[in-house]
Specification:
- This protein has about 280 residues and is of the alpha/beta class.
- The strands form 3 sheets. A 6-stranded parallel beta sheet has the order 1-11-8-7-5-6.
- Helix 7 links the parallel strand 5 and strand 6.
- Helix 2 packs across helix 10, helix 6 crosses helix 7 and helix 6 crosses helix 10.
- The longest helix has 23 residues.
- Bound molecules: guanine.
- Guanine (GUN) binds next to strand 4.
């Protein structure tokens, strides 16, 4: 019997704790955690993500502001805005919503955010800190994935973990974090030969490729923990990378889409903003 991992319920519980910590921080230090989100252009998906981030901040008492900039903004103007926020003591977290328009160098923008305010965990300093197990701010989706796996009550140490996908945002960092938890980790990707065979060895399978329904039950070992990071919009509804109906007969634990990894990502952003605020004391 497959047990579904209820990301929505787990995220709700974590947000309750964050809200309590925010109250304590105010009572003890008169400090209100602040997050500034920069949104460039009119991309509809980005607008939804940013609205959800604002709503989540409000729910837990984090002060949030959104700076909306035109699609035509220059890289220089954007970098100057980031510099100003780096110096603003009321803003503990800075997040630039990606993707950015083609004329702006994303790396230059990420590198401009002060590492102590980089609540996405994308700055090379924070990536290096993650590599050496020192990271204060870890990337949100991988951090959420680890929490979901831990919620199953299964020990990560000694398990075979296979991560399908090698992005800087999910695949690479989640592989590092699983390694830190003492799993034996394989990273598979679009050039991997015999992908199904590689995936079948997994006790923990994390799929982050953005191809709806790509992973069917022939890719998994009976009883494996399967984490589906895919969120592709198909005919108006969200689809995961995993064939849910087949998988829920074979996996030991499985995250649904929606309601699995998604709610955890924003929750970990709130957690990182709280961590950044506490670190500023
Ligand atoms: N766009 C899609 N996902 C993300 C994310 O995790 N962080 C940022 N900054 N932009 C995104």
């Amino acid at each position: 019997m497959t047990q579904l991992i209820d990301g929505k319920a787990i995220a709700k519980e974590i947000r309750k704790n964050i809200k309590e910590e925010v109250v304590t921080l105010y009572n003890e230090y008169r400090l209100i955690p602040g997050l500034c989100v920069i949104l460039v252009g009119e991309d509809p998906a980005s607008q939804i993500y940013v609205r959800n981030k604002e709503r989540a901040c409000k729910e837990v008492g984090i002060h949030s502001t959104v700076i909306r900039m035109s699609e035509e903004v220059t890289e220089k103007e954007l970098l100057e805005t980031i510099e100003r926020l780096n110096r603003d003591d009321t803003m503990h977290g800075i997040l630039v919503q990606l993707p950015l328009p083609g004329h702006i160098n994303e790396d230059a923008v990420i590198n401009a955010i002060h590492p102590s305010k980089d609540v996405d965990g994308f700055h090379p300093i924070n990536v290096g800190m993650l590599m050496t197990s020192q990271a204060n701010l870890q990337p949100c989706t991988p951090k959420g994935i680890i929490r979901l796996i831990e919620e199953t009550g299964q020990n990560i140490a000694g398990k075979q973990a296979v991560v399908i996908g090698r992005s800087n945002i999910v695949g690479k960092p989640v592989a590092l974090m699983l390694l830190q938890k003492h799993a034996t980790v394989t990273i598979a990707h679009s050039r991997t030969k015999n992908l199904a065979e590689v995936a079948q060895a997994a006790d923990i399978l994390v799929v982050a490729i953005g191809k709806p329904d790509f992973i069917d039950s022939s890719f998994v070992k009976e009883g494996a923990i399967v984490i589906d990071v895919g969120t592709t919009r198909v005919n108006g509804s969200l689809k995961g990378d995993v064939k849910f109906d087949e998988m829920k007969e074979k996996a030991g634990y499985l995250t649904p889409v929606p309601g699995g990894v998604g709610p955890m990502t924003i929750t970990m952003l709130l957690d990182n903003t709280l961590i950044a605020a506490k670190s500023s004391l």
